[in-house]
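RETRY 2/3 - previous attempt timed out on the joint model. Re-submitting the same 278-residue input unchanged.
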Amino acid sequence: MIEQNETARPGDGLDWSAVLDSLPFNADGLLPAIAQQHDSNEVLMLAWMNREALEETLQTGRVCYYSRSRGTLWRKGESSGQVQYLRELRLDCDGDTLLLRVDQQGPACHTGRRTCFYNVVQGDRLVVSEPPQVDPQAL
Amino acid sequence: MIEQNETARPGDGLDWSAVLDSLPFNADGLLPAIAQQHDSNEVLMLAWMNREALEETLQTGRVCYYSRSRGTLWRKGESSGQVQYLRELRLDCDGDTLLLRVDQQGPACHTGRRTCFYNVVQGDRLVVSEPPQVDPQAL
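RETRY 2/3 succeeded.
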């Protein structure tokens, strides 16, 4: 259904609840969700959402993922303080990926770094680009 | 193995070929790959890579994905001209997501828009944020 927006003009669109009913969640009922800091455009992390997590995030304005390892909803920052406030939710052209434009409180990564993407391929090495902002033991 | 970098200092790192051998490709042999414009930090799209696509991308400097719908390597822009030149390849803390910092030639999206993420949730609507830059028929 979301493909109907391909030819829509800016400002036009579709009923969100109808699109939500038609989203192509994968076999595990999940969609990948990219978290991006809304003002700097930095990519912070990628995690997964089921429909319940997506709806809760839109209702509360605080990002809730689905933890594949724990098999439960994962309210980001609930225990660590690494809360993500949702500024804008976007979907791609075929609706199989979410882009969360967020205001990240403190570091996004469990290592204490701002972003999870601190590993950089440089020739034959995979090099760390930045130090932790906070002690990961404190998270 | 990539988790060994969690406590490494900036500039330190691991042997890339050893990390590559240990990456947690999913049951289909794939990892999600986020493409981000290297200078503006705009998120352009999300696609998937198998090991062969990842290695080709690093060797050639032109981004090659794996097309899940076609079941083949997908050299982005090969027929459409929407080439992505790789500026930097990053991995997240647990190595299950790739971040491609690229120089996107023209629009990334098959609709002719710069980014695939042009659908924005606004209240009870899913609204188009921007028009195509080029006629999608021309791609």
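The longest strand of chain B covers residues 84-91. Closing ticket.
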